[in-house]
Amino acid sequence: MDRLFLDANVLFSAAYRAKSGLLVFWKLKNVALLSSRHALEEARTNLEEEAQRLRLDTLAKKLQFFEAATAELPKNILLPEKDVPIFLAAIEASATHLITGDLRHFGSYFGKVVEGILILPPSDYLKRFTGLSS
Predict the structure, then answer these.
(1) For the segment 49-98, what is each residue's pLDDT rounded down to a tens digit?
(2) Alpha-carbon distance 23 to 35, whole Å?
(3) Is the dihedral angle over the CA atoms 116, 29, 125, 21 positive or is it negative?
(4) CB 64 within 8 Å of CB 34
(5) How far apart are CA 38 and CA 53, in angstroms?
(6) CA distance linking residue 70 with residue 107, whole number of Å
(7) Strand, helix or coil at 83?
(8) Which of 22, 34, 94, 116 is the most exposed place for a label (fewest CB within 10 A)?
(9) Cβ(59)–Cβ(13) under 8 Å?
(10) Residue 130's beta-bridge partner residues?
């Protein structure tokens, strides 16, 4: 079973529109959807409409939450301070995948396994492992 850690931008995008293509993640079979309260709050802060925040609350009910147990990144990864809790929480969650649309900060790691976690944008995961696209 894949353990998908969803970054804040994935949560934001899924809640932004009622018919977001990213909602397909919540329909996948044989996956566990994981995130952190940090990511959830970052997504909530960036949503402007109450309807969007309500959609986020509904989506959050199907997530398992994990938080970083340490503040130190593995030696083989460099990230801005704001992204450190995301990656560390994914490690704590024993995620198999980190799903993020953050090309700027995670893009150099896309398609790579770091600390046992395959880092992918949402569309790549959906194409590679489900045959679907977002």
Answers:
(1) 999 999 999 999 999 999 988 778 888 889 988 899 999 999 999 999 99
(2) 15
(3) negative
(4) yes
(5) 15
(6) 23
(7) helix
(8) 116
(9) no
(10) none
What pTM was computed for the model? 0.94
Scanning the chain, the segments in alpha helix (DSSP H) are 8-16, 37-46, 50-60, 84-92, 103-106, 122-129
How far apart CA 20 and CA 84 sit, in angstroms, is 27
Q: What is the DSSP letter of 23?
A: G
Amino acid at 15: A
Write out the two tokens for 124: 């790549």
| Structure tokens belonging to residue 5 | 């850690």
DSSP-based three-state secondary structure for 84: helix
**Per-residue pLDDT at 132 exceeds 70:** no
CA dist 53 and 7 (Å) reads 16
Q: Which residue shows structure tokens 């997530």? A: 63
Going by C-alpha positions, the residue among 118, 79, 75, 81 that lies closest to residue 98 is 118
